[in-house]
Amino acid sequence: MKGEGRRVRQLSEGKPLPDQMLRLYADILNGMTIIRPFVEKHQADAVADLDKLTNGVAKILTTLQQPEGHFPFPDLRGKNIRFGDMINKQLKAGAVVVKDGWLVTADPDGGSQFDTGVCGTALLLAGQLNGNETCKQAGLRGADWALTQKCCANFNYNAFSVSLLAQAFRVSGESKYLDGSLKKFRVGVAPGQAPNGRWMDAHNARTVYHRIILQGLGDLMFALPKDRQDERAELDRVLQPAIKALLDEFDAMGQTVEALPELQTLAAVYPDDTRLKTAVLAMAGHVIAKCTDGQQVKLGSAVAQLAAVVRVKP
């Protein structure tokens, strides 16, 4: 927060940064939610500034959320080649609508599950921590939208909805969210797993997307009640080889992605897995190392990744 003073002030006032996807604000909100109990305990004089930033970022998300419940994507034509081309094609096909610098219609290819998943989850967790009903209801609106969406061909897009719906169940206790999360797992995630624990298509076989899928599976397992033994066994059959595939890669090549909060969730699900415990400690060290050049502290990792270091117990 000290190193990003100008941007922090702007965000604390509820003013978006230019040309940013909403997933950035979700990451910041997650980081603030993770670290707040520790700030309250160890640096109480910083709580007011942290809460101001949390409220400002939450305001940005809730203001931009669409009436249907999904979150929009910035109009990046002329600013980003990949996304600009994608938006031009969708506009030419009449598939999307741009308004005030945002694509306000849901991505016809299922991509809105990404931003809605991460933004909705961040709002749910922030609302739960702070007792903020506005955040909670915005997150549940995102979950209600996710319930209506068909699974798409991209497994990691579906995994974002698995996470969101699992968190909505944890916050609300409403069975429709757990049922929806399980359905998306069964239809939109599990069928794509290959025998080696990865996902079968070249896109989702990449580690960065494998991590997203693992996050969805971990969130669902964490939310599943202990007495749902059949569903837990069903999920375990997919989770175990997926975890092994990631940890085998780490052993062979070093830690190829940042995934500290995700590994922490998995370690909570499997508390006796010593490989997961070792990976959490190594990942925390990796994140810390990226956030200093030996002379000064810098924001070298995503906010939520860095914040999660405070939860690590050697």
How would you describe the overall organization of this protein?
The chain has 314 residues and is mostly helical. The longest helix has 25 residues, at 229-253. The chain has a domain at 258-314. The protein starts with a helix and ends in a 7-residue tail after the last helix. The mean pLDDT is 96. The protein has 13 helices and 3 strands; from the N terminus they run H-H-H-E-H-E-E-H-H-H-H-H-H-H-H-H. Helix 5 packs antiparallel against helix 6 and helix 9 packs antiparallel against helix 10. It has a 3-stranded antiparallel β-sheet with strand order 1-3-2, with no helix packed on it.
Give a summary of the structure in a few sentences:
This protein has 314 residues and is mainly α. It is 63% helix and 2% strand.
Keywords:
single chain; 314 residues; mainly alpha; three-stranded antiparallel sheet; 63% helix; globular
Secondary-structure blueprint of this entry?
Blueprint: H1 5-12, H2 22-42, H3 47-64, E1 73-74, H4 81-92, E2 98-99, E3 102-103, H5 112-130, H6 133-147, H7 155-172, H8 175-188, H9 207-223, H10 229-253, H11 260-269, H12 274-290, H13 303-307
Antiparallel strand pairs: 1-3, 2-3
